[in-house]
Specification:
- The protein is 36% helix and 18% strand.
- With 464 residues, it is an alpha/beta fold.
- It has 4 domains: 14-113, 3-Layer(aba) Sandwich (Rossmann fold), CATH 3.40.50.720; 150-208, Sirohaem synthase, dimerisation domain (Helicase, Ruva Protein, domain 3, Orthogonal Bundle), CATH 1.10.8.210; 217-330, Cobalt-precorrin-4 Transmethylase, domain 1, CATH 3.40.1010; 333-463, Tetrapyrrole methylase, C-terminal domain (Methyltransferase, Cobalt-precorrin-4 Transmethylase, Domain 2, 2-Layer Sandwich), CATH 3.30.950.
- A hairpin with a 7-residue loop joins β15 (405-410) and β16 (418-423).
- The two termini are 59 Å apart.
- Bound molecules: S-adenosyl-L-homocysteine.
Length: 464
């Protein structure tokens, strides 16, 4: 280890910054966040620094650095563009025994500043010993995306309850088990989501009873349209915490791979006419698993509340008093639109968009045709592949021109995506000719014309 990492308390402490440009502004911002009393030495100041000085929040010595100006601060940072000046500052500080950093100059520096991931009170600092700052910044970007934004709130929450938990569980092992359960459970998710109101009473209840903190919960998670890149951070985090996962046909294998390795996997099917488990059985299975104390992940394609029966699934949980959480996902219409280059609304072509299901009940559609055939509107049909001929015919019978642009997008957003564009008149034949399979979405409206121009990534062009 070339450098010894420490976290230094600077609240109310005098710190000296030499330099008034953009680099100095960045350092000043950090020092201010740490509560330092800041003095800046520079003939001129960048606007942000000048504003702080004007507001009386930062002291300013409007002159070039001179050794007499050093004083006895806790820290010195030299951020001028002149190496000679920086060297002079560093020499003076070192002689006075004050820690000094020269920005981007490890050779002159007594200490270096890390890349910071701030989830105060939790702070992560990354350093490459001043050798490859870019690498430290890249690492920071990765960590930023891994660590939930709500971690600060979680750390504050745990800090606030520390003494009470300590009083309740006198054994270290017990305490650790309690915190491990709480910090990975539904309560922690509620804290990170900022729903403080419930949290205090739930914590009281947990501390009052032995059994309840072993209680299970259900996460109803939207996994997006299939491409793992389109998962939310929250979905990924819960996938990596779950004890058991219930998934259906629309969840791509690439997505399942991201679920915690030792989690149990249960296929509950549900493609049209291929119900591996009836809905009621899925509901009661979730209830049973949660009651066994397990964290159940119900993984759904797209968004759980868009043609996903998510509402019904959590209804039985609510009835049983089982904690649950719903995580939205990118619905396949949004995914297909973006990946096929078909904006769902557009100033010139569509001022509204309608999502409908094309699923037939007893051989007929239950659709509001006058509403669907309006001008300047895009219609996206979910589950419409098997009835595509009847659908397209219906649009025409109810007044749409046979030449209205229409598209079908199969396995949208995945490597298998295929997009076919045509008109209401020829789309059914096109789909059949190319052997389009489920899952597929049908998009009807003038916006479809834009597909050729706006498709940014057509992995598998169809028809040459
Ligand atoms: N909750 C899901 C929809 C479930 S209904 C969502 O929000 O997307 C199932 C239908 O969704 C399928 O029949 C198909 O029409 C559509 N669908 C889901 N994923 C798809 C994908 N990757 N490509 C095209 N259509 C998809």
């Amino acid at each position: 280890m070339d450098y010894f990492p420490i976290f230094m308390k600077l609240q109310g402490e005098a710190c000296l910054l030499v330099g008034g440009g953009e680099v100095a502004v960045r350092k000043a911002r950090l020092l201010r966040e740490a509560g330092a009393r800041l003095t800046v030495i520079a003939p001129e100041l960048a606007p942000e620094l000048a504003a702080w000085v004007k507001a009386g929040e930062v002291e300013h010595i409007a002159a070039p650095f001179h050794p007499d100006m050093l004083g006895c601060p806790r820290l010195v940072i030299a951020a001028t563009q002149l190496r000679e000046v920086n060297r002079q500052v560093a020499d003076c500080a070192k002689a006075a025994g004050i820690p000094v950093n020269v920005v981007d100059d490890p050779e002159l520096s007594g200490f270096i500043t890390p890349a910071i991931i701030d989830r105060s009170p939790m702070v992560i600092a990354v350093s490459t010993g001043g050798k490859v700052p870019v690498l430290a910044r890249l690492m920071r970007a990765r960590l930023e995306s891994l660590i939930p934004a709500g971690y600060g709130a979680l750390a504050r929450f745990a800090g606030d309850w520390r003494d009470r938990v300590k009083a309740r569980f006198t054994q270290v092992d017990e305490r650790r088990a309690f915190w491990e359960a709480v910090l990975q459970g539904p309560l922690a998710e509620a804290v990170m989501a900022g729903s403080d109101a419930r949290v205090a009473s739930d914590m009281d209840a947990l501390l009052a009873s032995d059994a309840r903190w072993h209680e299970g919960c259900v996460y109803l998670v939207g996994a997006g349209p299939g491409n793992p890149d389109l998962l939310t951070f929250r979905a990924l985090r819960l996938m990596q915490q779950a004890d058991v996962v219930l998934y259906d046909k629309l969840v791509a294998p690439e997505l399942l791979e991201l679920v915690r390795r030792d989690a149990e996997r249960i296929y509950v099917g549900k493609a049209r006419a291929d119900h591996a488990l009836p809905q009621d059985d899925i509901n009661s299975l979730m209830v049973r698993l949660a009651k066994e104390g397990r964290r159940v992940l119900r993984l759904k394609g797209g968004d759980p509340f868009t043609f996903g029966r998510g509402g019904e699934e959590i209804d039985s949980l609510a009835e049983e008093g089982i904690p649950f959480e719903v995580v939205p996902g990118i619905t396949s219409a949004s995914g297909a639109a973006a990946y096929a280059g078909i904006p769902l609304t557009h100033r010139d072509y569509a001022q509204s968009v309608v999502f409908v299901t094309g699923h037939m009940k007893d051989g007929s559609f239950n659709l509001d045709w006058p509403a669907l055939t309006r001008e300047q509107q895009t219609v996206v049909v979910y589950m419409g592949l098997s009835s595509i001929a009847g659908l397209c015919e219906g649009f025409i019978l109810h007044g749409k021109a046979a030449t209205t642009p229409a598209a079908i997008v199969e396995w949208a957003t995945t490597a298998r995506q295929r997009t076919l564009t045509g008109t209401l008149a020829d789309l059914p034949a096109l789909a059949q000719e190319h052997g389009i399979q489920s899952p597929a979405l049908i998009i009807v409206g003038e916006v479809v014309q834009l597909a050729d121009r706006l498709a940014w990534y057509r992995r598998k062009p169809v028809g040459g």
